[in-house]
Amino acid sequence: MAEVTKDTLIGEALMMDKGIAAILMQNGMHCVGCPSSAGESLAEASMVHGMNADKLISDINTYLKDK
To answer: What is the pTM of this model?
Structure first.
């Protein structure tokens, strides 16, 4: 099973599963389509957007596990 970490780049996560985009957007990360966001880690993007990185990682990994 695929898993993401805080070091996973947004672009890498989206290549794992396009459904992750919806989770990112539901958590307030609406810049998913921005080319520069693809090179940001989930931790970096969470910090910039004032999000809890641990919750975001948990939400994504739960989604991937439950597929």
So the answer is: 0.90
CATH architecture of the domain with residue range 10-66: Orthogonal Bundle (1.10)
Which structure tokens are listed for 23? 């989770």
pLDDT one-digit tens code per residue, 40-66: 999 999 998 899 999 999 999 999 999
Q: Phi-psi category of 52—alpha, beta or left, where left has phi over 0 and alpha has psi -120 to 50? A: beta
The domain ranges of the chain are 10-66
Sequential DSSP letters for the chain: -----TT-BHHHHHHH-TTHHHHHHHTT-TTTT-GGGGGSBHHHHHHHTT--HHHHHHHHHHHHHH-
